[in-house]
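Appendix B. Raw example, untouched.
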Amino acid sequence: MRKGQYTLAIIPKGEIMKAKLLAIGAVAVLGASMIVVPAAQAATIKNGVNCTKANATTKVGSKVYRCGKNPYVKPTQLTWTLRGCFTANALLKDARSQYEDWKDLAKLAGADGEKTLNELQTSITELENTMKNEVCKRGA
């Protein structure tokens, strides 16, 4: 064995450069993978944060967000909104529609019908306020 032909008696001299390049490449790939940040951590996702793909969903902790136009935030644009906001908004629209249908019938029922109608209207108003101020508000 000539001096310098082998290093550590197991790696031929010509292979040392390949081994070094392979090691540098492995370190570079490892370093690059640590730089990539998952989407959920790249920007804090909460109500009102802009998004790009309508109806996309993501889960942050126990909360599920959907990309869409928040019915209670103006101007309307695609933002992350709690999925429950869209469900509650659909229920609210349905409740308003049913309220209009029952309004005339409740009046025929007399004082009890009027009382029930007023309670229903109060419940609808409270639901809408809760949605605007808590569930669907920006930053929730």
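End of appendix B.
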